[in-house]
Here is the input.
Amino acid sequence: MNRLLLTLALAPAAFAAAATDGTLPATALKPVSALLARAKTLTTASARVPLAPGDTTPNFVRAQELTPKAAEPMQQLFDAVVYQGAIQPELKLAMALRIAQIYDSPYLAVHANRLLRATDAGKLLAPTLNRTALSTSAEDLAISYADKLSRGIHAVSDQDFRTIRTRFNDSQVVELTTTTCYFNYLVRYVEALHLPVEPWALTPAQAPKSGVVDPIARISLISDAEINALQARLKAAPTNNWNIGLANSMRAMLLSPAVATAWGNYGTAAREYATVDRALKLHISFAVSMSNGCRYCSLHQVLGLRREGIDINKLVAMAKDDSALSPRELKATVFARKLTTNPAGITNADFDIIRKEFGEQGALEVVQQTCNFAYMNRFTDGLRLPSEDEAVHVYQETYGKTFADVAGNK
Here is the structure.
């Protein structure tokens, strides 16, 4: 397995300057107190999807009622992100709260704040969330990393990355990245589905589970958990005709084995439900990846679309505008782009368009696919993972030029 340092060295340096991305401006943060006040008014909000029974089950898990096999993996993914690994749970919750501030999400804010303030360490971190000028402490660097990577997948500069590597090793940087990616997934998921705030979430929480925090090693050692996760992933990997073996995204993600396993399990469970066909889901992820300017994922989606038999001429047109899309594809991609750039701006009318087109379960799948690439775009290009040779070959065969050239000419 390539180590993170090697993958960063191999990444094409010219891409960051050439690509256009959807970086959010550094606007004033929403005060945590304002988000919590709004959360109190949302306990009777109407979710846009059915919610499964469960008095003390979070609504983001209950929202899997239409895809019930994915409910438990969704809860396990949250637990893995927050409570497993080498980074303090309180720091990861502070990162989640900062992401809620950026995207104006009372739902995410109330859950992150509730768990963050359950411990003395969390109470010390909480006040930093209303400061934009952060220090060089490890905690502030992590919050700043989550802030920048949330605002744009290329917003973390080389200098930012060099600075954060003075405090965190390879595996911990991947853990900070997966934490940021997951809460970028979750904030879009809860806002798209307009989930009501649970009344119990407004009350103080008991102290959360203790995370196992190891000393920061100066080099990354391959752990038993990484070995076991890799073996399980290789055994579970479906056969496909993509000809890329174990993708570089998974090679990097396995440096945070608990999250890699939980993310894989959730994805596998969610994919059991497929009222929306694979080709259309690839259209959605291509639209999101192009909107974010994500090189790695855009190349992967082109490879997948070609393997699905999509005509080259259509792919060339799709890199420029939406003129080649069918009405069904257009509805999905327009919704996906809005959820990507403005999750709190999704309205009932927006959701009704995809619900009418795809049905209730299909609408949930469109949301999930969009959220998947809020996660993956930040992970792959945030870490500048190199694209596999097959993906590069197919992309250049399709467009006759590199991704940077296509993105620059769009």
Summary: The chain has 21 helices and no strands. Confidence is low (pLDDT under 50) at residues 1-20. Residues 348-382 form the longest helix (35 residues).
